[in-house]
Amino acid sequence: MKDIICHDSAKKHVTGESVYINDMLVNDQLLLGKVVFSKYAHAKIKKLNIKKALKVKGVHAILIAKDVPGENQMGPVIHDEFCLAEKEVFFIGQAIALIAAENEYALHQAENLIDVEYEPLEAILDIETAIEKNNIIAPPRKIERGNPDEALKNSPHIIKGELKTNGQEHWYLETQTALAVPGEGKEMMIYASSQNPSETQAIVAEVLGVSKNEIEVEVKRMGGGFGGKETQGNHVAAWAALLANATKRPVKIHLFRDDDQIMTGKRHRFFSKYEIGFDEKGQILAYKVELNADAGSATDLSMAILERAMLHADNSYFLPDVNIMGKAWKTNLPSNTAFRGFGGPQGMAVIENAIDKIARFLNKDGTEIRLRNFYNFEKNNFTPYGQKIENNRLFIIYDKIIESSEYFKRRIEIKKFNKENEFYKRGLALTPVKFGISFTTSFLNQAGALVNIYTDGTVLVNHGGTEMGQGLHTKILQIASAELGITPDKVKVNATNTSKVPNTSPTAASSGSDLNGMAVKNAIDIIKSWLAEVVISEFEKNYPASKTLKENIVFENNFIFDKENPDKKISFDEIVKIAYLKQVSLSSTGFYKTPDIYFDREKGQGNPFYYFSYGMSVSEVEIDILTGQHKLLRTDIVQDAGDSINEGIDKGQIEGGFIQGVGWVTTEELKWNKDGNLLTHSPDTYKIPTVNDIPKDFRVEIMKNIPNTGTILKSKAVGEPPLMLSLSVWLAIKDAISAIGNHESEPEFSLPATYEVILLSCEKLKKK
Ligand code: MTE
Ligand code: QUE
Ligand code: MOS
Known about the structure:
Elements: H1 12-15, E1 31-37, E2 43-49, H2 51-54, E3 59-63, E4 88-89, E5 95-101, H3 104-113, E6 115-120, H4 127-132, E7 141-145, H5 148-153, E8 157-165, E9 177-182, E10 188-192, H6 197-208, E11 215-219, H7 233-247, E12 251-254, H8 257-263, E13 270-278, E14 284-296, H9 302-311, E15 321-330, H10 344-362, H11 366-373, H12 394-404, H13 407-420, E16 424-437, E17 446-453, E18 459-463, H14 472-484, E19 491-493, E20 496-497, H15 512-542, E21 553-556, E22 559-562, E23 565-571, H16 572-581, E24 587-593, E25 598-600, E26 605-607, E27 611-624, E28 630-639, H17 647-665, E29 697-702, H18 727-738, H19 755-767
Helix pairs in contact: 6-7, 9-10, 10-11, 14-15, 18-19
Ligand MTE binds at residues 224-227, 340, 468-470, 472, 507-513, 653, 656, 717, 719-720.
């Protein structure tokens, strides 16, 4: 049943048949909602008068903080985010009022007539200032092993450094959107673009001051989430619900692109400091790193993100004596949030850069240093947090990619090219990824499902995961079809709905198919055991001589048969009808929780991950040292996806994740002015990758014959890990720059490596 199904985007998205919230046909009662937001990064609200605005024709409601009937809060983990600002505003883009009107024109007119007066206060707009003012958002975190200070002292060489990695805008194609439809009494139906419908339900219930059983949240699909709709999809849902509740009419909020970019949180920028000790061969002896994250104005998921950054500070390398500190700082910017990789990219970038420096310092190839420090099999196989590395795939992937990319041959060719060319330089880099799979907040590793079989033999699967383009529903459909032994055309996966499957975890941490796939299998196993009994009693009728054992019943190719005696068979459709007439249930819930994982935050120790996903990439770039422009000439990727459930989808995830990462490490640059206004809030100022940024030669390979044990269909998660493979592009650029000085001195470098960064770095080296 594997590999034969294409994602619905292959046809429906292309033809336009796919329905997003903004395409939904609602009745003529529909009102549009608008969010009025703060124009100051930090200020007192001196006056907020809506009287004039309320008189605008077509306006049905204007709400401010005091109009929130329930709790005026929408912080997901900690309640430190107002739904609507009260006396003070903490960032530009913070919601202060909501308008519901019949059309866009009325919305804009009303917005202009809202009378707000601010008294500006001092704003903290970067990590350095936050550190200076000790504006920490929560107590620092630590992971430590051995005695890193002593080990540093005893190291033949030490490199010290700092690294800034900038944030990243999610740039989902569908901006934050929600439609709220009031029902009878306190009922409210929410059509949300949310990775976490259960949390959307909880927040809507809280702001309305009603119980969760009055709120139904449905998610058909998102036009991309990438982490940006893990918590912040809740915001528009809460605002739409408030307006729908006030007007008793359906209300839709669909953020204008620029407003979305201004109002919502992004990938956390980090400011990191490190010291790494090593010997002549490049063996790492000690590593100390301090990761400082810009949380923005509220906590959101910052502590979980910081934790994942810390848990990936080692990337694929054994660090004997190590100290990892994590601090999240409060600033007057939108609260930063989940973004593909969830801190992993920020943690890994630091050590990859450090290893790159070691290689240059020792005048060795980076791959030699990496290979030498990889986690090993019998020894050097424990992470800083004490988890043992099992089923280590680093060496097989390394061997494969070194060969398939012709790494060493191309290294020589590049040397030659750089010697012969004065204004163009080429660079090459290999980087590995080891990414931990599971929510580090262990209780989140659970999922539910509801599987219904109808009397015509068709199947409807409900599960707790959401579809954001990653192909989860397609994989779940394949899983259901494989487990029931029926063809995929008989199975349909429903929109995610909190009334079908309750109390779900966010679709995040790349665990959507691992968790929900298992929950669906559990539900199907239960139904199959009921059906098996019906099958046996049917067999006994027709073949009275022999007995069929329940364990011998096989579901395959739309039939059910006795493994010991395959002639005994009956079609799936037939048995479903018989079961119904025999009053046997054809519907079951299913549940799954990941076994044996835990993490002690206080101690910084545990087994937080069920397994690791591995991958490597080799990238070659060419830079123009007169302009700083770069071209990505070739990338090879080898990725471990276990037994891939759907190679087409997984390949799409690998390519898409990698390119999204290429944007983060090269062209995507967030800039603010001195008042905290985001300057890069539209596609003409914020440059995400386009088709032109795809490597000219792009070779993606999924490893074969390495099944994962203990997961659904022996697969592995694939959603986030490939993003971090883009670090090879970043370091290939650095390698090309350093060719100017014959690799003798360390180029100045940061992330992203924009044309400007590249050019300035080249200029510095030329002067040396
Ligand atoms: N792929 C597409 N097309 N759109 C998305 O929004 N989100 C990514 C990844 N791949 C995303 C995507 C992120 S951040 C995660 S955590 C996973 O998909 C979530 O889905 P999964 O757990 O089913 O892999
Ligand atoms: C990876 C993730 C998440 C995570 C931990 C990971 C994630 C997420 C949370 C989280 C943490 C605490 C909460 C909560 C969610 O943790 O996406 O509601 O109270 O939401 O390692 O992707
Ligand atoms: Mo993905 S950042 O875990 O939504």
